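Quick one before lunch.
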Amino acid sequence: MSKTRIAFIGAGNMAASLIGGMRAQGVDAELIRASDPGAETRERVAKEHGIKVVADNAEAVEGADVVLLAVKPQMMKSVCEALKPALKPHQLIVSIAAGITCASMRAWLGEQPLVRCMPNTPALLRQGVSGLYATADVTPDQREQAETLLSAVGIALWVDEEAHIDAVTAVSGSGPAYFFLLIEAMTAAGVKLGLPADVASKLTLQTALGAALMATGSDVDAAELRRRVTSPAGTTEAAIKSFQADGFEAIVEKALGAAAHRSAELAEQLGK
Ligand SMILES: NC(=O)C1=CN([C@@H]2O[C@H](COP(=O)(O)OP(=O)(O)OC[C@H]3O[C@@H](n4cnc5c(N)ncnc54)[C@H](O)[C@@H]3O)[C@@H](O)[C@H]2O)C=CC1
Ligand SMILES: O=C(O)[C@@H]1CCC=N1
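Model of the NAI complex:
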């Protein structure tokens, strides 16, 4: 990885967080290049990370070992088709675009080795998690390059089937929003119980942080941690019983199913 040359196509939020993560890990600025049509974006990312950012995508990929596509899914077809003549067969393409399948990218780019990823927005704080899928022609070295790249902003996990990227999208890609929804709802409920809004908000946020740190740092699972909070006939038990009587697990299962279904549906629509 230390000598891998990487070109980012699109230098927006996700690309900038990946570039920042790589630079923080000591990757040489000379090894990273990016392209973006926005003059302000080019200037900002170049200044912040000390890398070269150009306007021309073909110029960015020249001499790169890995080309990371970080444009919006709706832009992928036109960007890929325009990039195709500039690519060399050995260049690994890594896509973070939601809902764009390897088959679609193959149709637009030709027979390049591909890694399709689904990161999430905590990548901005280097606390992300990504699911990665590789096509069969990706070499072990290229798998390592992709994994190292995504690991710069969090944890990277491989899946063996491309369809599992829809499940990854449902769990972790969209997942931060579910926790934000719970934070919103708990804060609102605290206010209904009489707390000032800022107090309800701080209590909720610190509880979310504390629970996440306990769950990630513990050698017992979430069910056991929950049991330890839940005194028999106590307050937590009253709340958990209420959640479960209203079908909490079924609500979560149905919501994640809707996200996975939408991910597959988007792939169908955007792949045309
Ligand atoms: N936001 C999220 O939660 C997640 C986003 N993603 C994916 O990451 C990708 C990037 O998303 P963001 O960084 O949030 O978007 P963004 O809008 O911040 O960045 C996209 C960048 O692409 C540039 N661009 C537009 N046309 C271009 C072209 N023809 N050539 C080169 N660059 C071009 C834009 O100027 C912009 O700076 C998307 O495909 C999205 O699906 C993946 C996982 C999670
Ligand atoms: O909501 C979406 O479609 C994208 C994919 C994962 C997070 N945001």
